[in-house]
């Protein structure tokens, strides 16, 4: 400065950020280049010259998922890997189909919050907070429930007909980890599972057999 004083570092940094924001280019979109690797910041952008309308359209949510499986439920994702147009937009979607007696077991989405909207049937849904408080209810057609990011939550068909819901997420790639599969569908040694779950050896090995784990 002219009087010999120096500019405080925090003021200088703030000026740089303001100038950068003022001169930065604002893109309309960043369609994911799925042939590249995903990163915490998302996929790199496709060249605009290669972007088509198809990148912004996903048709899979109109098709019922296959519920002929162990949990009698199916999730059809429209995440960035299936729907490159949501890359960088902070959103994605999915379809949830649950047959009678079906369940989406306790799971988390570490990358985003979830909003569920029931369009058919009845769903018992809830989540457990980090303070171990429990919030659950029965949702009917037209009802909506939100599951905060990272919280353990579940959905169960509470009726005798197929239940269907559409789901939106606050991330193009919210991630998914099902607690039971994380514990019993891999090669984590049974003695360790027993130690961290307080289950006995017979119970652990039974669950590993059901879910395809080993060890």
TrEMBL record:
SMART domains: Cupin_1 (SM00835). Its main location: secreted. It is found in: Secreted, Extracellular space, Apoplast. Mn(2+) binds at residues 107, 109, 114, 153. It holds the Pfam family Cupin_1. Belongs to the germin family. This is Germin-like protein. InterPro entries: Cupin_1, Germin, Germin_Mn-BS, RmlC-like_jellyroll, RmlC_Cupin_sf. Keywords: Apoplast, Disulfide bond, Manganese, Metal-binding, Secreted, Signal. Gene3D superfamilies: Jelly Rolls. One of its GO terms (cellular component) is extracellular matrix. It comes from Musa acuminata subsp. malaccensis.
């Amino acid at each position: 400065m002219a009087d010999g004083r120096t500019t405080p570092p925090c003021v200088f940094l703030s000026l740089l950020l303001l100038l950068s924001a003022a001169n930065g280019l604002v893109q309309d979109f960043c369609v994911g280049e799925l042939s590249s690797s995903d990163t915490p910041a998302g996929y790199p952008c496709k060249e605009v010259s290669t972007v088509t309308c198809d990148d912004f359209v996903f048709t899979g949510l109109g098709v019922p998922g296959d519920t002929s499986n162990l949990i009698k439920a199916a999730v059809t994702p429209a995440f960035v890997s299936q729907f490159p147009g949501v890359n960088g937009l902070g959103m994605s979607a999915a379809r949830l189909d649950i047959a009678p007696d079906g369940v989406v077991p306790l799971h988390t989405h570490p990358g985003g919050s979830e909003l569920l909207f029931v369009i058919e049937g009845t769903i018992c849904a809830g989540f457990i907070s980090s303070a171990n408080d429990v919030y659950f209810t029965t949702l009917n057609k037209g009802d909506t429930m939100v599951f905060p990011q990272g919280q353990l939550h579940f959905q169960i068909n509470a009726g005798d007909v197929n239940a269907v819901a559409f789901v939106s997420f606050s991330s193009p790639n919210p991630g998914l980890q099902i607690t039971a599969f994380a514990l019993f569908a891999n090669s984590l040694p049974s003695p360790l599972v027993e130690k961290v779950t307080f289950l006995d050896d017979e119970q652990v090995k039974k669950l590993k057999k059901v879910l395809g784990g080993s060890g």
